[in-house]
Each structure stands twice: as structure tokens, then as C-alpha cells.
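Example record for the data management plan.
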Amino acid sequence: MNDIAELKNFVVAHTRSQGLPPETYDPLLDRIRHDEDGTPGSWVREWSAEAARLADAGKPLEASVHYNMARFPFVDGAARATALERCTASFAEWAAGFPAISRLDVELAGGRVRCWTVGLDAEAPRPLLVMTGGIVSVKEQWAPVLLQLDRLGFAGLVTEMPEVGENTLPYDADAHRMFSGLLDAVEGRADTARTYALALSFSGHLALRAALSDERIRGVVGAGTPLHDFFTDARWQRGVPRVTTDTLAHLAGSTPGEVYGLLADRALGPEELAALRIPVAHVTSLRDEIIPPGDARLLRERVRSVRLLEHDDVHGSPRFFAQTRLWTLLSVLRMRGGYREERIALTREFARLRYAPPARARTAVRA
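Corresponding structural encoding:
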């Protein structure tokens, strides 16, 4: 069973990223007392009960959000498995009201990758944005952004990391090849030669490694990305929150005591980062309890074209989510080029949020 105090702490960033205000989730969290598999007062039961209420009220997207939180951080039993099924079904019900959004299943060596897409068109292929979350977030958490990508003239594809949600690929040393496999799958329906990745947390590590060998990836935007020290610094690893270590062990098919030894060779070395020939944008949390500060320092020192946004916050920077969302989209548009009016509007809104108390953030840019 998970540590309830940790779950309540780490879920905040994910609730805020999905638009849930504290007055909505605080009373719900207060009702949760333990993490037994779906019993009264448990994590899964309380989130699922609220999800069911919202589904009955005809609010499938809100229901999907709550079922997503019910299966958080990963499926470890029947109750969370049911919550994941209802999360995806509720999202599908919502997406049915938007014909532009489509489901795509991609069979790759080792497993199946399920995606939500927009704008795939063989007659007029668009530049492609691939979006992925981290080790504890499913694709339905981010898929609503597809509507915005459609309006901006992108083809969009949102999916999960290997072994997360409905992705059955193994989280192994070849996990980064998923990105190239997805591009191959939509070749001809998207302009994959102009692909950009918005890859959050641990999926950012996979996207950067994929970009080293796949020239179709023209830029990577990430946040809270492990690069090198996270995988190699044993002292730091001993202080990583239990929920992170347990989730990594689950994904890697290992144990909490052995998983870091298994992952040690996944580190991106300074020479590999220096070999990147694409623009990289990254959001760093200065009080990140998961990603060591040395990894952000490596980005600054080794990546040739990097733009950094720093927040004085913990992993995921939940207090600054609105700023991060604007800045990451703005970073994609900068990499793509054009979009002058949209970039001006986003820059103005970002500046308004950045300089409005109590938000504090600073950017560091190196060409």
C-alpha cells in the first residue's frame, strides 16, 4: 500500500494541472484515511465515488479527471485497474463530442501504444507535436490540449510512457524508441520531419535520447526531467520520495531496493547532451525533491541551444502551473517559427502572471 501522506502531497500538482481547485479536492482528501484496495475511506473509493457522481451528472471530463486520481500513482490492484478503465471510458465519452479528436492504437515491437490524436491528414500533413507525461500521469490527463493544437494548425498526438496507463511497451533501455515508432506510424498523415516533443518529467529523458538518433524531432520542451545524476547518485536516490521509487520499480519490473541499479545505465552523459543539435526548453523546480539540481545544471552547461524557466517550488511546480503551461506552449511556437500574434499574446500573459505577486520565476537563456 502507498503512504497516504505522500499521495496527498504529490497529487496536488496533478489536480491543479487538470483544473481542480483546492476547495474541490481538499474535502475529498480529508475523507481519505488509508490505501486498502477500494474499501470505504480508501484512496480509490473516495476519488471513484466522486467520479461516479460527476459521471451521473453528465460531466464525463470531470469524471475522467477523478478516476485518473483514483488510479494514481499506478495500477496495483483490482480497484485501481477499474478506475483506469473508467478514466479512459469517461474521457472517450467526452471526446466523442469533438469529432477532431481521434483514438489511435500503434502496435510496436514489444507492445501497444494507445494515443489520442488530432489533425492527422494525408491530404494536408501538418507539423506534429507529440505530448507525453511522466511516470504517474496517463494520456487522458493531457489530451484536452489537442483542441488547442488543432486551432494552432498542428497535428497532435498525446500518449503515455511505457508501462503507464494503457501503454504496454516495456520500460527498458530501448523505451525511447517509442517516439520513432510513433512517428513512423503517422508518417504521411503528419509532417513528421517537423516534429516537436512536449515531454514532461521522466518522458523528457526518453524524448531527448530519441532526439539523438531521430532527426525528425526538431525540438524538445520538458519539465522536471531526470538526465544523469538522478540515475547515478546513490546518495540522492536514498532521499527520493517513496512513491517515486515504488512507481519506477513497478514500471521497470524491479523492486524498490534494486531499481536504481537497474536504471543506472539510462543516464544521459555530458557528451550526449552536447551532441544535441536541436533547441531545448526546460522548466526547473528549484526545490525539486525528485530531480537533483545537477541535472538542470547539465542542461545549462552542455546543451547548445537551451532556454530555462526556473520556479521556486517543488517537483512539478504546482504553484506556478499557469505560468508553466503558457511558457511551454510559447516555447513550442518559438521552435516552430511564425505565430507572431499568438506568441505576443502568450508572452504578455506570461509576463503578467510572472510579475504578479506572489508568483516568482526567472528565466535563463543561453543560445
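Summary line stored alongside the record: The longest helix spans residues 78-95.
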